[in-house]
Design goal:
alpha+beta; 5-stranded antiparallel beta sheet; two-stranded antiparallel ribbon; about 15% strand; globular; RNase_T2_His_AS_1; RNA binding; Ribonuclease_T2_eukaryotic; endonuclease; nuclease
């Protein structure tokens, strides 16, 4: 009888561990990705402004993406936890300003945020619930302030080309960590500053050096288009 009771207790503990108590960290770090709207709209035929109007000429949030040390990443981790706009009602105005969508049809941004939460955010739900996920990204953007870091170094969104190494150094000197720069190419074949990646620890709050960078390559001189 005692043996049966022990087995039953073990089974209960295992089930609790799997469901609540022993939730493990299922990723190694985040990529915090910000996008320059001038590059997106200069190279995309389908660039649309949100219903709130043209976004500010500033780096907008693209996402906070859980990642593994080997460069791979989890996605669509919990279909039972869909995006719920009511959970971020107090963040809505900040998100419309700092996390705008330029993809058509852009609408009010909910479609973009839904995609980011369900594809990426659900893979960090062991440490960040839906509100915490978006709040963490907004806090990181404020902390980093990429545009100020660049303009303070004389690198301005004026359509001119700047040294990739100078762009990287300007950001690194300001935030204290090495960024990864993603470029795209406009219709004239110019390499443009498109997205900037910084790495964040698993709390979603602290910048770290990136364990691994994404694949891709920019030219030694890249354009910083106006918006």
């Amino acid at each position: 009888m005692k043996a049966n009771s022990t087995v039953t207790l073990i089974k209960i503990l295992v089930l609790l561990c799997l469901s609540v108590l022993c939730v493990s960290q299922e990723f190694d770090f985040f990529y915090f990705v910000q996008q320059w709207p001038g590059s997106y709209c200069d190279t995309k035929q389908s660039c649309c402004y949100p219903t709130t109007g043209k976004p500010a000429a500033d780096f907008g949030i693209h996402g906070l993406w859980p990642n593994y040390q080997d460069g791979k990443y989890p996605q669509n981790c919990d279909s039972k936890n869909p995006f719920n706009p009511d959970k971020i009602a107090d963040l809505r105005s900040s998100m419309q300003k700092n996390w705008p969508t330029l993809a058509c049809p852009s609408g009010n941004g909910v479609g973009f945020w839904t995609h980011e939460w369900e594809k990426h955010g659900t893979c960090s739900e062991s440490v960040l619930d839906q509100h915490g996920y978006f709040q963490a990204a907004l806090g990181l953007q404020k902390q980093v302030n990429l545009l100020q870091a660049l303009t303070s170094a004389g690198i301005n969104p004026d359509g001119r080309s700047y040294s990739l190494s100078n762009i990287r150094s300007a950001i690194q000197e300001t935030v204290g960590f090495t960024p990864w720069i993603e470029c795209n190419t406009d219709t004239s074949g110019n390499s443009q500053l498109y997205q900037i990646y910084l790495c964040v620890d698993t709390t979603g709050k602290n910048l770290i050096e990136c364990p691994v960078f994404p694949r891709g390559k920019c030219g030694s001189e890249i354009e910083f288009p106006s918006f």
